[in-house]
Design goal:
With about 350 residues, the protein is α/β, with parallel strands linked by helices. The chain has 13 helices and twelve strands. It folds into two domains: about 220 residues, Isopropylmalate Dehydrogenase; about 140 residues, Isopropylmalate Dehydrogenase.
Length: about 350
């Protein structure tokens, strides 16, 4: 991994255990069995030492070691820390969705969010949850993204963005039924999402003049109204408004042709209208290394781009590549935000450093 500065070592990344019956504990163990991860950041697992030890034994990962701490105030830099978010005995039913799995996934998430809000950790990486078993008092949300938006942005504008190297795909609508998508779209919403993506590409990814492609909703982008009028009535006006405000937004593009050709490679960000329109091509192109990033929030949160994968949980075959990429991206965004905010706050300081007069 090369040389890392002292500042990088200070980045503290909280990692929630996710559903204890899914692949979350397994991929966390596999990822941190490689001690080189500790050169990148100081990780803190939010979960249970008993649950982690259960899977360490199941997987036979003898190289995996952690330090149990009582709170984030006790974090030991360059060590793998673990905070026990519950003390009671919990039955693990590997591969089965259970209310217990949902209960303790939420318990770990709450504790991590508490420390994140206090500034005790710099970023949050969330292992997969089961959206159905997560439904309980305090969590009436379709997923992590909406919950975190409520916690840290009072439900304000945010963006689910899938990232893999130069490919960044976001969606206007999130976890809603397909038959509700058209009714949920309006020009103000699309314009707002374009602005959020534009700001994130600049601050979080260091792209000075990002180019954003906006997809249409209907086949062939509506074929000039023949196959639907959303492009003409809603999407195009939003793109024009963004362009007039200085954002390099283009479209609407027909999704199949856009991804089917190499056209998508000419943009820094792609805004899809709904979940599957953006995520199907992304996952086909990104294989197992994609990362889910919640843009538009004051905090940094990433996650692997896959679910609990109950069918392979505990079998030792789940890949840790996506969650590892999620940790990498979280660290990169923390550093990018620090650099951007320093430059924005004191441009004179940086112009002197670069030799300008």
């Amino acid at each position: 991994m090369g040389q890392h500065s002292e500042d990088e070592e200070k980045i503290i990344v909280g990692v929630t255990i996710g559903d204890i019956n899914g692949v979350g504990p397994e991929i966390i163990i596999k990822m941190f069995s490689d001690n080189r991860m500790l050169q990148l950041c100081t990780p803190v697992i939010y979960g249970s030492s008993k649950a982690i030890s259960f899977y360490r034994k199941t997987l036979g990962e003898s190289d995996f070691n952690f330090t149990t701490i009582k709170s984030a105030e006790e974090i030991k830099l360059r060590k793998l820390n673990l905070i026990n978010c519950w003390d009671e005995e919990v039955t693990i039913e590997t591969g089965n969705p259970t209310p217990t799995g949902g209960k303790y996934a939420f318990t770990a998430l709450q504790k991590a969010c508490e420390d994140l809000s206090k500034g005790l950790i710099n970023a949050l990486v969330t292992a997969p949850i089961d959206k159905k078993t997560m439904q309980q008092e305090g969590f009436r949300f379709p997923g992590h993204t909406e919950f975190l938006a409520q916690q840290f942005a009072n439900g304000g504008d945010h963006l689910m963005m899938l990232v893999n190297e130069g490919l960044r795909v976001a969606t206007v609508t999130g976890h809603i039924a397909l038959n509700e998508v058209s009714g949920a779209l309006n020009a103000d919403l699309i314009f707002s999402k374009i602005k959020t993506m534009h700001a994130s590409l600049i601050r979080d990814f260091g792209i000075r003049k990002p180019r954003i492609a906006v997809l249409g909703l209907n086949p062939h982008s509506g074929e000039k109204g023949l196959l639907g009028k959303e492009e003409q009535d809603i999407i195009q006006p939003a793109i024009q408004r963004a362009f007039d405000s200085g954002i390099l937004a283009f479209g609407p593009y027909s999704a199949d042709g856009f991804f089917g050709s190499s056209q998508f490679k000419g943009f820094d960000g792609i805004l899809a209208m709904y979940h599957d329109q953006g995520l199907i091509p992304f996952k086909a192109l990104a294989f197992e290394a994609g990362v889910n990033f919640t843009a538009g929030l004051p905090i940094v949160r990433t996650s692997p781009d896959h679910g609990t994968a109950y069918d392979i949980a505990g079998k030792g075959i789940a890949s840790e590549s996506s969650i590892r990429s999620a940790v990498y991206l979280a660290c990169d965004i923390v550093k990018a935000r620090i650099e951007f905010d320093e430059i924005s706050g004191n441009p004179l300081k940086f112009s002197k450093l670069s030799g300008d007069r």
